[in-house]
Every structure is written in structure tokens, then in C-alpha cells.
Amino acid sequence: MFSKKNAQIFFFGGTFLSFAVFIGLSWHSIAYEIPKQTNSAAITEDVVRGKRIWEKNNCMGCHTLLGEGAYYAPELTKVIERRGPEMIKSILKSPTPWGPRGRLMVAYNMSEQDANDVIAFLTWCGNIDLNGFPPKPVLSQPTKN
Amino acid sequence: MKYQSQKIAYLFFALSVLLLVLQIIYGFIMGLGRLGYDEWFHDFIPFNTARATHTNLLVVWLLSGFMGAAYYIIPEESQRELVSVPLAKIQFYSFALVGVVAVVGYHFNWWEGRKFLEIPRPLDYLVVINVLTFLGLILATLYKGKQRTTTAMVLTMGLVFAALLYLPGMVWFESQTLDSYFRWWVVHLWVEGVWELIMGGILAYLLIKLTGVDREVIEKWLYVIIGLTFISGILGTGHHYYFIGAPRYWLIIGGIFSALEPLAFLGMALFAFSMYRKGGKKHPNTIALYWTLGCAITSFAGAGLLGMAHTLPSVNLWTHGTLVTAMHGHLAFWGAYGMLVLAMISYAMPMMTGRKLYQNSRGQIAFWTANIGMIGMTTALAAAGVAQVYLERRMGMEFMDAQNEISVHFLIMLASASLFAFGIVLYIIDFFKYGRPVDTPSQQVEDSFIAVSE
To answer: How many contacts, defined by CB atoms under 8 Å, are there between A and B?
Structure first.
């Protein structure tokens, strides 16, 4: 008969085992795989400053990066590749809210240096190997002419 | 209510429902933003402020509810008064203060800008001190108590682990991937791990009280459920590591273990219902029973099934970072933790005040309207999310073009949210009609059972 003691062993044993495997895999990921996959050697001072600006302004509160954030504004992982750095720089430096089709972005009015740092950060993010994310569209889109 | 110190729970419950109202208001602000009616407040409350406020208020009102529940349950389970009521009061006021300062700070760009963990670093330290005080009071009461029940131990274990897991979120990383990696140690291991322990503990307590089933039976199954929670939930963290720059083996591990996560919630639902049927007795507080059983069912639907719907890597590749996540998030938090806190409040209020407001129909209407409203919101987000996935991800439409296509679903979302808010308002009217806890309740409310007529 399944007793309370068995149930207890199931809980403590299962938890300990899962936790041990989780810690082991996390160690392997962080020590060996993530540095390679993210090209961590390329994290320059500009990239770090860019990350701080990214956080200070809670960009994730509207956008997503690596697919994480708030779904209110575009996913930015590959934005440098998609839009090119010049357009992004002009949006970041704009003194009035950038509002494509009605949805407003905060006007950050950034300095040249700050905008360049954010671009460096996004460029680094864009080169991470994300196991296939974001996927390429597979269905044809109606032609826009 | 057997011990006078249990009354401290009232303060936490009151804070909890007030912050819930604020959370709903910020939800409406976000909805207006999505429909493009935000020009008049965008300068003061841009979307990122509203979003940080909305999600952080959720965390704070739930934590306040959990703390209140612990202050109510632990003295009773360990059969003694709380070790210090004045310290608990200080803990309450400082907790409320930190919460208010954080939320106000978000309106002045004072935040960390990391999803769910926006609280700025100096306040993090205050949170740590606050939570240590809380845990100290709970642990000391438990230690000095006459008995240590499984229910009390599971609840306390959940609270202690939750506090420990707050710490990885306070380390700063230069790499966005590592930042995200450890942020999920807090967020995922909270809501799909240790919070489920808290949930299991509170549910077990409520079921013992409301169904009259023998404690031994309930507590045995409690161990099985929390065992399932950790076995699936810990390695299930992998579903957040699919596409953030972590190795590919997380796709397999995260896929398999997070697919098992619904089992814990299924266990919780089966557990609650079989105990309810086994009890064969009826507690007069049917409203508390509704919320308790509702929590067990809705957590399975929202956290279990809707989570399962987009957790497999082949699906998540397309849905990652879309409104599909918001769809799952709403019903999951509401079912598993929102309804749990409301169940606890519904159970404890008559005990603390000696009033039997559960005999009116307002509470029933509140239950149904809030739940139907929340299901409507979830459905609207599901429609919006699935459409977004097809238009933007599968067909390659521009982000804003796809957003404009799906904006109609946000009208439904706002309409459903209004119904939800109406239910919550009714719930809160009842809460305030109960009044404050009294020393000697005029009518002693006990866990007296009415025999069910077969």
C-alpha cells in the first residue's frame, strides 16, 4: 500500500535528483556552450553600456529581445539586420515620439554615443546562435504593390 | 479563529485586494494603449510603465496574500500564538511601503528593466530584509509550536525556497543570455516550482477545513503532488532556454519535462475534487469552497493545458514572444494564484470578523462574473495571439500591420475585462462589509458542518 512515507520519499528523492541534473546541465551550459553560442568574447564595453541603457529605459517593457518582453512593439533581436543601424539611430535620437501607424514609442532623444552603444548591444544580440529563432516565414505573403 | 495573532492576516488581505484593483486599472491603461487611445496619458504612463506596474502589482498582491495566509495558517497549525505581532505589523507596513515606492518609481524611470524583476536594486535589499523578518516570525512560531504538520511544513518550505530563489535575480550579467538564464531561475522556479508548494499547502489547509477529510489522507497526496511539481518543473525551466542562446539539448529536456508540468496541476484538481466528494459533508461557507475548487480546476486549465499548448519546441519556435504567452499568463496566474488568495480570504474573513456574509448571493455573483470575464479575456488573447503567429511569423507580415489586423480582439478583451472587474468589485464590497477583525466575534463562526442530505 502506498503510504505517506513512500510519498515523502518520492517528493524528496525526485526533487533532489531533478535539482542535481538541473545544476549539472546549467554548469555545462554556462561554462562551455553559452560562451561559444553567444560569442561572449565579442562583448565589448560598448555592448555593456548599450545593455545598461536598454535596461535603464525598460525597453523590454514594450519590445521583445530574444523573444522575451512585452509584445507591444517589434521583436528586436535581428533588427539591425532588418532595418540597418541608421534608421535605428534616428529613432533613438528623435526628440518627438516615434509613432508608426499610431502606436507611440517614448521619445528618448539620445546622444550620438548612447545611440551607438544601443546599436552595438543589438548587433551583438543579433549574432547569437538562437537555435533557429526567429524562424523564417514559411507561408507566402500576398504581394504588396 | 483560535488565536488572536491570526488577525494580522487581515492587513495583508486588505493590501492584497487593493493592489488587485490597481493592477486591473493598469490593465485597462494597457488595453487603451493597444487600441491607440493613449495619446493623452502616454507622456506620464507610457506602455512600458503600465506593463511593469501591472505585472509587479500582480506579484506584490499575490505575495501579500500568501503572507496573510501564512500568518493565518501557521499559528493554527502549530497551535500557538505568532511569536511577535508588533514585528509582524512592522513587516507589513514596510512591505507595503516598498511596494508603493517601487510602483511610483516606475513612473519616473526608476527600475531595472528586466521583465518581472523591475524593482530597482536598493529596494531589492529592503525586500530581502523584509522577507527575512517574515520568515523569521513564521519559522520561530513553527519551531516553538506544539506540532509541525505536513501542511505547515510544505507551506513554509515553499516560502523559504521562494525567498532563496529571489537571490539569483539580483546578480548582474554583461551577457543578455546569462541575464535571461538566471532571471528564469527566479521567475520560472517561482511560479512553476516553489509557489506551487505554497499553493499545495494552502489548498491542503482549506480542504482539511472545508471538507472534513482526514488530515493524513490529504497530506499523503500533498507530497505526491508537490513531488510531481518539482520533478517536472525544475527541468521544465528548459522551456525558457530554447531560443535565448543556450545549447540545443534544452529543447529536448525542456520539451519533455515541461510537457509533464500539467500533471502536477491535474493532480491538484483531482485531489481537490476527490477530497470534496470523499468529505461527504458540507461546510456552510460555500463561497470559500467555490474559490478553492475553482482554483484547482482553473489552474489546471490555465497553467496546465494552456501552458502545454505552446511549450513544445516545434510550437514554441513560432509562438515565442507573441501574445500567445500573454494568453497563457492571464489564466494561469488567475487560476493558480489569484483564485487561491481569494479562496483564503473568503475562508478567513468570517472567522476573523464573526460575520457570515457567505450567506448572501453577492459572493456567488462575484465568483461567476470574475471567472467568465477572465475566460473571455483569455479567449480574446488566444485569438489575437494565434492570428499574430500566422500573420507575422508564418507569413512574414510587418509587426504593426499584423497588430492592426488583430486589434479588434482587444475590444473583446476590454469588454471581458470590464466583466472581470465588475466581479472583483463585488468581491471587494463583501470584503469591506465584513469590517475589521474583532477580539471576540459576536457570533462565533466555527468549521461546523451541515450533514448532506443524501
So the answer is: 205
